[in-house]
Amino acid sequence: MKTASRYIAKQIVMAMALATLVLLPLFSFFDLLEQLDDVGKGTYQTRDAFLYVAMLIPRRFIQIVPFIALLGTVGALGKLAINLELVALRVAGLSPARLSIVPVGIGMALILIIAVMEQFIAPQLQQRAVALRATAMDKTAELGKGLGIWTRNEHNILRIGEILPGNIAIDVEIMHFNEQNLLATHTHAKFADNLNDELWRLNNVTVRTFTEKNIALTTASTVEWQSFLKAEDISTLTKPPESLSPVELIRHTEFLQETGQKVDAYLMAIWRKIGNAFMIIAMILLGIPFIFGSVREGLGGKLTLATVIGVGVYLLDQIIANAGLLLQLNLVLTSILPSLILITLTILWLRRIY
């Protein structure tokens, strides 16, 4: 039976590889079309667009891997069913439950690959791509258009207008509050340099000191400021949550919680990554009942129906996740609920077939 399992596994891996060769270039082509619209802005050129899309390939693969798992499972097992190889395997004593273990095992291996990519490959390349694009187009990331980047700790609120390459902060405001939570000083700097992880050099500085009787105004060409932000914290603030690795997400979430800031978007990103693993298994399980049913309609019909169902589940997953974030529902539940529902329904379907 080990030989049969290896044969089935080989067929599924080959089918998943074929699905990847079809889907990944297709999605990358759509990304390229979008980027070509920006060619000519700043110094952004066609080669930059191609480089940007190439750097996003690992992230796109992670995003579409549930569909790859579904199509690979249906394609491989469907081919075996049409060629009556599955019938022969079942006659030889290989039960449907045993047959199902093989694709699920491949799904677990795929999850491990995705975990490595999420931590060590996709975030680094995606962040590099965003930084290169921003540099070429003379743009930087912002928390909100015209609002700049805001963060705080117990006694300080920091606003940065924008971050230029090299972690140069432009239009910096520091509001320091005393023990009574009253504004004590307001510092504005035209720009700031990071001297090290904890020390900033503020340039063209204006400081307003508030007392009960008056407001004192002082100016200086440079002032050194002991920051509560490290350089990596600043760069993290300018990155979209999905581009952060799991370790970066956890560390940054802890930082936001310690400083009393909202963490929902980052917690959602963490649970979405976990939910993606559940979705891979759900899609593989979804593909199995198609094969043990009738094969008269042919492989093409099964692939089409599986794709439609997969797209529907994906859209439902997106809607539930975004609605959960908007309505402040349980992030754990909304992130993995579609996958759990699909897994449950598929297991019930499989039990009826077996």
From TrEMBL:
Keywords: Cell membrane, Membrane, Transmembrane, Transmembrane helix. The chain crosses the membrane at residues 12-30, 50-78, 99-117, 274-292, 304-325, 331-350. Pfam families: LptF_LptG (PF03739). One of its GO terms (biological process) is lipopolysaccharide transport. The keyword Membrane applies. It is a multi-pass membrane protein. It is found in: Cell membrane. GO terms for cellular component: ATP-binding cassette (ABC) transporter complex. The keyword Cell membrane applies. It comes from the Bacteria. InterPro entries: LptG, LptG/LptF_permease. NCBIfam families: LptG_lptG. This is Permease. It comes from Nitrosomonas communis.
